[in-house]
Protein backbone atom coordinates (compact mmCIF):
# COMPACT_ATOMS: atom_id res chain seq x y z
CA UNK A 1 0.00 0.00 0.00
CA UNK A 2 1.51 3.31 -1.13
CA UNK A 3 1.82 6.24 1.16
CA UNK A 4 -0.74 8.98 0.56
CA UNK A 5 -0.08 12.56 1.64
CA UNK A 6 -2.88 14.81 2.72
CA UNK A 7 -2.56 18.56 2.23
CA UNK A 8 -4.55 20.90 4.44
CA UNK A 9 -5.36 24.46 3.34
CA UNK A 10 -6.17 27.25 5.72
CA UNK A 11 -9.04 29.21 4.21
CA UNK A 12 -9.95 32.57 5.72
CA UNK A 13 -13.08 34.44 4.73
CA UNK A 14 -13.19 38.22 5.14
CA UNK A 15 -16.28 40.08 6.24
CA UNK A 16 -17.79 42.65 3.80
CA UNK A 17 -16.52 45.53 5.97
CA UNK A 18 -12.97 44.17 5.91
CA UNK A 19 -13.15 43.65 2.18
CA UNK A 20 -14.38 47.24 1.73
CA UNK A 21 -11.48 48.61 3.79
CA UNK A 22 -9.00 46.60 1.80
CA UNK A 23 -10.53 47.69 -1.47
CA UNK A 24 -10.52 51.43 -0.59
CA UNK A 25 -7.13 52.88 -1.52
CA UNK A 26 -5.47 55.53 0.62
CA UNK A 27 -5.88 58.32 -1.90
CA UNK A 28 -9.66 57.78 -1.88
CA UNK A 29 -9.80 58.45 1.86
CA UNK A 30 -7.82 61.65 1.31
CA UNK A 31 -10.29 62.79 -1.34
CA UNK A 32 -13.20 62.16 1.04
CA UNK A 33 -11.47 64.20 3.76
CA UNK A 34 -10.78 67.06 1.37
CA UNK A 35 -14.40 67.06 0.23
CA UNK A 36 -15.55 67.24 3.85
CA UNK A 37 -13.28 70.22 4.53
CA UNK A 38 -14.50 71.94 1.39
CA UNK A 39 -18.13 71.53 2.47
CA UNK A 40 -17.28 73.05 5.85
CA UNK A 41 -15.56 76.02 4.20
CA UNK A 42 -18.54 76.54 1.93
CA UNK A 43 -20.86 76.61 4.94
CA UNK A 44 -18.65 79.19 6.66
CA UNK A 45 -18.53 81.32 3.50
CA UNK A 46 -22.31 81.11 3.24
CA UNK A 47 -22.72 82.35 6.82
CA UNK A 48 -20.34 85.24 6.11
CA UNK A 49 -22.25 86.19 2.97
CA UNK A 50 -25.53 86.10 4.88
CA UNK A 51 -24.08 88.44 7.52
CA UNK A 52 -22.79 90.81 4.82
CA UNK A 53 -26.18 90.77 3.09
CA UNK A 54 -27.92 91.61 6.37
CA UNK A 55 -25.59 94.57 6.97
CA UNK A 56 -26.04 95.73 3.38
CA UNK A 57 -29.82 95.60 3.75
CA UNK A 58 -29.65 97.73 6.89
CA UNK A 59 -27.32 100.21 5.17
CA UNK A 60 -29.62 100.34 2.15
CA UNK A 61 -32.57 101.16 4.40
CA UNK A 62 -30.59 103.91 6.14
CA UNK A 63 -29.55 105.34 2.77
CA UNK A 64 -33.16 105.30 1.64
CA UNK A 65 -34.18 107.29 4.72
CA UNK A 66 -31.36 109.77 4.14
CA UNK A 67 -32.36 110.19 0.51
CA UNK A 68 -35.90 110.97 1.58
CA UNK A 69 -34.63 113.49 4.10
CA UNK A 70 -32.46 115.09 1.43
CA UNK A 71 -35.45 115.40 -0.89
CA UNK A 72 -37.47 116.96 1.91
CA UNK A 73 -34.66 119.41 2.59
CA UNK A 74 -34.48 120.47 -1.05
CA UNK A 75 -38.26 120.81 -1.29
CA UNK A 76 -38.48 122.93 1.85
CA UNK A 77 -35.28 124.91 1.49
CA UNK A 78 -37.05 128.03 0.25
CA UNK A 79 -39.55 127.87 3.09
CA UNK A 80 -36.88 127.46 5.76
CA UNK A 81 -34.79 130.26 4.24
CA UNK A 82 -37.67 132.67 4.88
CA UNK A 83 -38.17 131.70 8.50
CA UNK A 84 -37.33 134.55 10.90
CA UNK A 85 -36.90 134.77 14.61
CA UNK A 86 -40.21 134.53 16.49
CA UNK A 87 -39.14 137.38 18.74
CA UNK A 88 -39.36 139.85 15.89
CA UNK A 89 -35.89 139.68 14.39
CA UNK A 90 -37.37 140.24 10.93
CA UNK A 91 -34.45 142.29 9.68
CA UNK A 92 -32.00 139.44 10.20
CA UNK A 93 -30.77 137.59 7.16
CA UNK A 94 -28.45 134.73 6.29
CA UNK A 95 -25.98 134.30 3.42
CA UNK A 96 -27.09 132.51 0.29
CA UNK A 97 -27.14 128.76 0.77
CA UNK A 98 -27.84 129.04 4.49
CA UNK A 99 -31.11 128.26 6.27
CA UNK A 100 -32.48 130.77 8.75
CA UNK A 101 -34.35 129.65 11.84
CA UNK A 102 -35.06 131.45 15.10
CA UNK A 103 -32.38 134.09 14.60
CA UNK A 104 -29.67 131.62 13.56
CA UNK A 105 -28.19 130.61 10.23
CA UNK A 106 -27.47 126.97 9.44
CA UNK A 107 -25.46 125.49 6.60
CA UNK A 108 -25.81 121.80 5.76
CA UNK A 109 -22.75 121.05 3.65
CA UNK A 110 -22.67 118.61 0.74
CA UNK A 111 -18.91 118.06 0.78
CA UNK A 112 -17.58 115.30 3.03
CA UNK A 113 -14.62 115.95 5.32
CA UNK A 114 -13.15 114.81 8.62
CA UNK A 115 -14.44 116.40 11.81
CA UNK A 116 -11.32 118.58 12.10
CA UNK A 117 -11.57 119.80 8.50
CA UNK A 118 -15.28 120.45 8.96
CA UNK A 119 -14.43 122.52 12.01
CA UNK A 120 -11.96 124.59 9.97
CA UNK A 121 -14.48 125.03 7.17
CA UNK A 122 -17.16 126.36 9.50
CA UNK A 123 -14.62 128.72 11.04
CA UNK A 124 -13.70 130.02 7.56
CA UNK A 125 -17.39 130.85 7.07
CA UNK A 126 -17.53 132.91 10.24
CA UNK A 127 -19.41 130.15 12.04
CA UNK A 128 -18.78 127.02 14.08
CA UNK A 129 -19.91 123.43 14.09
CA UNK A 130 -23.45 123.15 15.37
CA UNK A 131 -24.12 123.39 19.09
CA UNK A 132 -27.70 122.48 19.99
CA UNK A 133 -29.06 124.71 22.73
CA UNK A 134 -32.62 123.53 23.31
CA UNK A 135 -35.28 120.96 22.43
CA UNK A 136 -36.95 123.16 19.82
CA UNK A 137 -33.67 123.57 17.95
CA UNK A 138 -32.97 119.84 18.21
CA UNK A 139 -36.37 119.02 16.69
CA UNK A 140 -35.69 121.43 13.83
CA UNK A 141 -32.22 119.98 13.13
CA UNK A 142 -33.43 116.38 13.33
CA UNK A 143 -35.72 117.00 10.37
CA UNK A 144 -32.71 117.78 8.18
CA UNK A 145 -29.65 116.00 9.58
CA UNK A 146 -28.48 112.93 7.69
CA UNK A 147 -25.04 111.77 8.84
CA UNK A 148 -23.75 115.27 9.61
CA UNK A 149 -20.91 116.20 11.95
CA UNK A 150 -21.92 118.46 14.83
CA UNK A 151 -19.72 120.32 17.32
CA UNK A 152 -19.78 117.61 19.99
CA UNK A 153 -16.54 115.74 20.71
CA UNK A 154 -14.22 114.39 23.40
CA UNK A 155 -10.44 114.38 23.71
CA UNK A 156 -10.19 110.67 24.53
CA UNK A 157 -12.11 107.52 25.37
CA UNK A 158 -12.04 108.35 29.09
CA UNK A 159 -12.93 112.02 28.60
CA UNK A 160 -16.34 113.65 28.84
CA UNK A 161 -18.24 114.93 25.84
CA UNK A 162 -18.17 118.68 25.30
CA UNK A 163 -19.21 121.20 22.68
CA UNK A 164 -16.64 122.78 20.39
CA UNK A 165 -17.04 126.20 22.02
CA UNK A 166 -16.35 124.73 25.47
CA UNK A 167 -19.97 124.53 26.61
CA UNK A 168 -20.74 121.57 28.86
CA UNK A 169 -22.67 118.69 27.34
CA UNK A 170 -25.99 117.68 28.91
CA UNK A 171 -27.53 114.25 28.46
CA UNK A 172 -30.93 115.78 29.19
CA UNK A 173 -30.97 117.22 25.67
CA UNK A 174 -29.01 114.71 23.62
CA UNK A 175 -27.89 111.14 24.26
CA UNK A 176 -24.74 109.97 22.45
CA UNK A 177 -24.75 106.35 21.36
CA UNK A 178 -21.18 105.15 21.90
CA UNK A 179 -19.79 102.57 19.50
CA UNK A 180 -16.04 102.03 19.71
CA UNK A 181 -13.58 103.46 22.29
CA UNK A 182 -11.56 105.30 19.64
CA UNK A 183 -14.55 107.17 18.24
CA UNK A 184 -14.53 110.68 19.70
CA UNK A 185 -16.67 112.82 17.39
CA UNK A 186 -20.44 112.89 17.03
CA UNK A 187 -22.61 112.45 13.96
CA UNK A 188 -26.28 113.37 13.94
CA UNK A 189 -28.59 111.28 11.79
CA UNK A 190 -32.39 111.14 11.83
CA UNK A 191 -32.61 112.17 15.46
CA UNK A 192 -29.84 109.89 16.72
CA UNK A 193 -26.41 111.06 17.87
CA UNK A 194 -23.61 108.48 17.57
CA UNK A 195 -19.86 108.49 18.14
CA UNK A 196 -17.70 108.00 15.05
CA UNK A 197 -14.05 108.08 14.06
CA UNK A 198 -13.15 111.76 13.69
CA UNK A 199 -11.07 111.06 10.57
CA UNK A 200 -13.97 109.63 8.59
CA UNK A 201 -15.38 111.96 5.88
CA UNK A 202 -18.95 113.13 6.44
CA UNK A 203 -20.97 116.26 5.82
CA UNK A 204 -21.36 118.80 8.60
CA UNK A 205 -23.69 121.47 9.99
CA UNK A 206 -22.30 124.97 10.52
CA UNK A 207 -24.16 127.50 12.64
CA UNK A 208 -23.90 131.24 13.33
CA UNK A 209 -26.12 134.06 14.49
CA UNK A 210 -28.14 135.83 11.83
CA UNK A 211 -26.92 139.34 10.97
- Helix-strand makeup class: alpha+beta
Poorly predicted runs are 83-89
CATH class division of the largest domain? Alpha Beta
Q: Quote the distance from N terminus to C terminus.
A: 142 Å
Mean pLDDT: 80
Rg to the nearest angstrom? 35 Å
Mind summarizing the main beta sheet? 9 strands, mixed
What is the name of the CATH topology of the largest domain? Mannose-Binding Protein A, Chain A
Provide the helix percentage: 25-40%
In DSSP terms (H or I, runs of 4 or more residues), the helix count works out at: 4
CATH H-level superfamily of the largest domain: Mannose-Binding Protein A, subunit A
Strand content: 15-25%
- How many domains make up the 3D coordinates? 2
SSE pattern: HHEEHEHEEEEEE
Based on Cα principal axes, name the global outline. elongated
Which architecture of the largest domain would the CATH scheme give at its second level? Roll
Strand tally is 9
Coiled coil: 49-83
Domain C-type lectin: 101-207
Membrane topology: Single-pass membrane protein
Organism: Gopherus agassizii
